[in-house]
Design a protein that fits this description.
Blueprint lengths: L2 E2 L7 E3 L2 E3 L22 H9 L27 H8 L10 H7 L16 H9 L1 H4 L14 H19 L7 E3 L1 H13 L12 H4 L12 H6 L7 H4 L2 H9 L1 H4 L12 H11 L14 E5 L1 E7 L15 E5 L13 E11 L3 E10 L2 E5 L2 E6 L6 E9 L2 E11 L5 E8 L2 E5 L5 E8 L11 H13 L2 H4 L45 H13 L8 H11 L7 E2 L2 E2 L18 H5 L13 H9 L17 H4 L2 H8 L13 H11 L28 H4 L2 H9 L1 H4 L24 H13 L16 E2 L6 E7 L3 E8 L4 E6 L4 E7 L3 E2 L17 E5 L6 E3 L17 E8 L5 E7 L2 E10 L6 E9 L7 E8 L2 E3 L4 E4 L3 E6 L7 E5 L2 E8 L5 E9 L1
Antiparallel strand pairs: 1-5, 2-3, 4-16, 5-16, 6-7, 6-8, 8-13, 8-16, 9-12, 9-14, 10-11, 10-13, 14-15, 17-18, 19-24, 20-21, 21-22, 22-23, 23-25, 26-31, 27-28, 28-29, 29-30, 30-37, 31-36, 32-33, 33-34, 34-37, 35-36
Helix pairs in contact: 2-16, 4-6, 6-14, 7-13, 11-13, 17-21, 19-21, 22-26, 24-26
């Protein structure tokens, strides 16, 4: 790749003020400022120098390294666990009951199905597996050969394996400091260090990269970790990232699970682990390489101007082809900073443009060229700068403060018409990453054939799947059955000095003794009980590295400090340490356990550690085994709960009750405080009987929880709700949260930036309201029921309960866009014209509304409480529409009085009261619409309502019968 001498990276300059950017780590999960004035990423250089430019191969005490051996678990015999982890039954056949009991770990797949390895690593690993990767469970099968014969065998096996995997070398990946920084963070936070040794201390992670990274008592920490080996010699960034995305494809045993990584995250972690392959990033004096794309940092927060970006830490970082907002994770209140270089072909004066909503600024070589800052609608501004031919540092900052969003960055210059800056003109710095000690490999057909023969004769195919059906690869030397092995013999795999024909595992004395004891006394014919199966699977998959169960397991010292939270969530250990699994079969619904284990189910977005995915074959039986092991039985039903009690459940959850939303998210809406688990997910996850017991006494089921006890000694802290009946209150909460968003949001949850509140009289808000059109008239009533009248179509469009409206959008900047209701239980009333003249009751309802439909608006009148009566006409009929809110025990309802007057005879006039899925007649004049809305009509004049089907929907039509020149309808709506 071409190299160039880097110009200075642009510094963000606001007036005379220099403001730092962000690319180091301030605390687990965050970045800290660094100056864009750095001529090169020196912070990465310091980090790599401090780390010795790579992953050191650790000195491990004798023995194989198995994660579960770091923490002995009661009920799991070390020898039996080792038999499974060493996959002894791959050679030593045994019956199916024993196979199931051992939960053996199959070896990694090789060939096209496996992970591509480098020649230098594979040669060294085959020659002496333990020297290349201390603690490996891969035995040395060539230890009985002399030097020349062993070298020949190694070359043959290596040739065969490399040829099977494919000899087309992948292109060199271009490493960059941002990838390393992101990978550094991810590796230490998402759970990798629960099993693998941390690469840096927590103290170093709290500082910019390059700070001292020593870990106290590193050797002791590595003894409790699964070794990584010398990855920088072993593979490439692309191959390692491919493995990290789907480890089960290569290692089907699940001991290396999927961490639910995105492609970008996998590449970043691979770049960090192979950072020794990028020496020029550690030496600013060397020229670096051009890499396509720009580096970006993404921010989330409520911003009013560009300097506000410096007040928050980046939520993400990465590489993007050109200036674009596509990596955003939301559509409001976010920001970006893009940095890199632009190549201009000809010297001359260049014009740069930013078109954005809201603000943006563009810098070239430290100079502010375009200043389009501030809160505003889509606006373009330009600036010019004299440039020499070649590369120039460029940086763009952008923020969105709410509402619409857009960004377009363009330029023009000598020979260039105005256009968006193309990706071909943009790049950032990096370095091609290639494995250390790289060797070339040339296919030798004779060696490949010899290697194929050895792969079969040595029994490699007994453990390793290659995807080949070649009979020569199958084992041709059957081993003794597991039951017939002489555990007391000093030969074979268990011998102190393995013979030439035996696999040498380099077991330590303790491990060898445990294996002998297991072979001598194991109850091979007895299947494991459910509780034993749970413990065995958890031990084999090293679930105890994160979770405790029945007092065993949990993060070890030296590892526990790396468990952290995302952002600033202050939830203590509950927010950072994975939950205990004691009696989890009686807590979680088995279908949810399955969702978590196999379908990436998650409810704790504040927890940095991710729940791995182990694969159906490895954990598919766990949900049912948890239930059996914990004697959970069938979940008890909470019983039938009335609709009224569901409403009381909403009140209890809200700020007018127990204020659960002070901590808990609800239906995706942020809590008022710390971001505890979304309440609407509880009924999907939890068994109702466990939920009931938990609310009565939280610490008894989750020791150390911050969840308060609202029913101490079984007595309610809110005796004024539902008579203080504890069971009824808890059942009401369960019934309410089980309805999810359909149950309406709890009072007090949604709070506007500029909320309009009706206190002693109604509040009127005329503006763009979502669902009510561009000429909406919103009315908020003190009773906390609200409406929006559509003055275009002359109809009551929306009614809702709780908070009224947030006026911030329309009182900020140009106030563009539609504002939705702020409250909950938003009910959309029939669209189109409310009244129509029909020749018969089954005639189609007209679609024309407003002026085209014969309507005209005549304003509104206000009563003594500023409640409006809407005045409009339909043809010759004048209409007065007077809705008022009616207070209730829980939620207010509406009573709407519609008076129609006409000087001429008006027959065949109908009012369409409902359009929906269903309308059921109840008592005379009462109807249930869509199973949740109650409609009641008082019709002083004679007339029979009609329920009919039309265009796939159910309609409720009310006839308008005039007595003299007047007709009146009183409609009561409760929901």
């Amino acid at each position: 790749m071409k190299t160039f001498n880097r110009p200075r990276l642009a510094t963000r300059r606001y007036g005379k003020r220099i403001i730092s950017g962000a690319a180091g780590l301030k605390s687990p999960g965050q970045f800290v400022p660094f100056s864009f004035r750095l001529a090169a990423p020196r912070w990465v250089a310091c980090a790599l120098v401090a780390l010795g430019l790579g992953l050191a191969v650790r000195a491990l005490a004798d023995g194989v390294s198995v994660g579960a051996l770091a923490r002995p678990i009661a009920g799991v015999a070390t020898g039996e666990l080792l038999i499974g982890e060493l996959n002894c039954v791959a050679c030593h056949q045994t019956e199916g009951t024993v196979q199931a009991r051992l939960f053996s770990n199959p070896a990694p797949r090789v060939g096209a199905q496996g992970m591509r390895l480098t020649p230098q690593y594979l040669r060294s690993f085959l020659s002496d597996p333990r020297r290349e990767k201390p603690g490996t469970t891969m035995p040395d099968l060539l230890h009985g050969l002399n030097g020349a014969a062993k070298n020949e065998a190694v070359e043959a096996l290596m040739s065969f394996l490399l040829t099977e995997a494919g000899t087309n070398a992948p292109p060199a990946f271009a490493g960059d400091p941002y990838r390393i920084a992101e990978g550094r963070l991810l590796f230490h936070q998402i759970g990798c260090v629960a099993c693998h040794a941390p690469q840096e201390s927590v103290a170093a992670l709290a500082k910019p990269a390059g700070a001292a990274s020593s870990i106290e008592d590193r050797q002791a920490l590595e003894q409790t970790s699964v070794p990584l080996g010398n990855l920088a010699r072993k593979t490439t960034v692309g191959d390692l990232a491919k493995f990290l995305l789907d480890p089960l494809k290569v290692r089907p045993g699940g001991r290396m699970p999927s961490m639910k990584l995105t492609e970008r995250e996998a590449v970043s972690i691979a770049t960090y682990l192979l950072r020794a392959q990028a020496p020029s990033l550690a030496n600013p004096a060397e020229p670096v390489h051009k890499v396509a794309g720009l580096s970006y940092q993404y921010f989330e927060g409520e911003f009013d101007d560009l300097p506000d970006l410096d007040k928050v830490k980046p939520a993400a970082a990465g590489i993007i082809e050109q200036f674009s907002l596509s990596p955003r994770k939301r559509n409001e209140n976010f920001g970006f900073r893009y940095s890199g270089y632009i190549s201009v072909p000809t010297a001359g004066r260049y014009g740069f443009f930013t078109e954005s909503d809201d603000g943006s600024q563009l810098f070239v070589d430290d100079k502010l060229v375009v200043d389009n800052a501030g809160t505003h609608g889509n606006t373009e501004k330009r600036g010019t700068v004299q440039l020499t031919a070649g590369e120039h540092a460029i940086m763009v900052s952008y923020f969105n403060g709410g509402g619409e969003w857009s960004l377009k960055v363009s330029y023009r210059g000598p020979g260039i018409t105005k256009q968006e800056i193309p990706a071909s003109a943009l790049f950032h710095v990096g370095q091609p990453m290639t494995p250390l000690d790289a060797e070339s490999f040339t296919v030798n057909p004779d060696l490949v054939a010899r290697g194929r023969e050895l792969f079969g004769s040595l029994g490699c195919a007994a453990c390793h799947q290659s995807g080949s059906s070649d009979a020569a690869l199958k084992p041709n030397r059957p081993a003794k059955s597991l039951a017939s092995l002489n555990a007391s013999a000093g030969s074979g795999c268990l011998g102190d000095a393995s013979g030439p024909g035996a696999a040498r595992y380099d077991l330590n004395d303790s491990q060898r003794g445990a294996l002998r004891a297991a072979l001598s006394g194991a109850e091979w014919s007895r299947p494991l009980a459910p509780a034993e199966r749970v413990t065995r699977v958890m031990a084999a998959l090293d679930c105890f590295a994160c979770h405790s169960r029945d007092g065993a397991g949990g993060p070890l010292p030296g590892h526990i400090e790396y468990f952290s939270v995302v952002g600033q969530a202050d939830l203590g250990d509950e927010g950072r340490i994975p939950p205990h699994l004691t009696k989890v079969g009686g807590k979680l619904r088995p279908e949810w356990t399955r969702e978590v284990l196999l379908n990436k189910g998650a409810v704790r977005p504040y927890m940095a550690t991710r729940m791995p995915q182990f694969g159906e074959a490895n954990v598919g039986s766990l949900p049912a085994d948890f239930v059996r092991a914990d004697d959970a039985g069938a979940a008890a039903s909470p019983g039938t709960v009335s609709d009224a009690d569901v409403g009381y459940g909403r009140k209890l959850v809200g700020t007018s009750g127990l204020s659960c939303i002070s901590c808990h998210v609800y239906a995706g809406h942020k809590s008022l405080g710390i971001p505890a688990i979304d309440l609407t997910l509880m009924s999907q996850r939890l068994r109702p009987d466990w939920f009931h017991r938990y609310l009565l006494d939280p610490p008894s089921l989750r020791p150390g929880t911050r969840m308060p006890a609202f029913w101490p000694q079984g007595k309610s802290s809110r005796p004024d709700i539902l008579g203080g009946d504890t069971d009824r209150q808890i059942n009401a909460i369960w019934a309410y949260i089980s309805r999810g968003a359909d149950g309406g949001l709890p009072p007090g949850l949604v709070q506007g930036k500029m909320e309009l509140i009706a206190t002693n009289e109604a509040v009127i808000y005329r503006n763009f309201i979502a669902g009510a059109g561009s000429r909406a008239i919103g009315v908020g009533y003190p009773e906390k029921a609200n409406l929006a009248f559509d003055a275009n179509d002359l109809r009551l469009a929306l009614i809702w309960q709780g908070p009224f409206i947030d006026a911030a959008r329309h009182r900020t900047g140009r106030g563009e866009g539609f504002e939705p209701p702020l409250g909950y239980n938003v009910l959309k009333l029939p669209p189109g014209p409310a009244f129509a003249a029909l020749t018969q009751s089954d005639a189609a309802w007209p679609s024309a509304a407003g002026k085209t439909g014969g309507y005209q608006m005549h304003g509104y009148l206000l009563d003594h409480e500023r409640r409006p009566t809407f005045l409009y006409s339909f043809g010759a009929i004048k209409i007065e529409d007077y809705p008022v809110a009616v207070p209730g025990d829980l939620d207010a309802s509406f009573r709407r009085t519609i008076t129609l007057r006409s000087d001429s005879t008006s027959a065949g006039i109908w009012f369409r009261a409902w359009v929906g899925a269903s309308v059921v007649a109840k008592d005379p004049g009462q109807y249930l619409a869509d199973g949740k809305v109650k409609l009641r009509f008082t019709l002083p004049n004679a007339g029979q309502p009609v329920i009919r089907q039309s265009n796939g929907a159910t309609e409720l039509l009310i006839p308008i019968v005039f007595a003299g020149n007047e007709s009146k309808i009183v409609e009561e709506i409760s929901w």
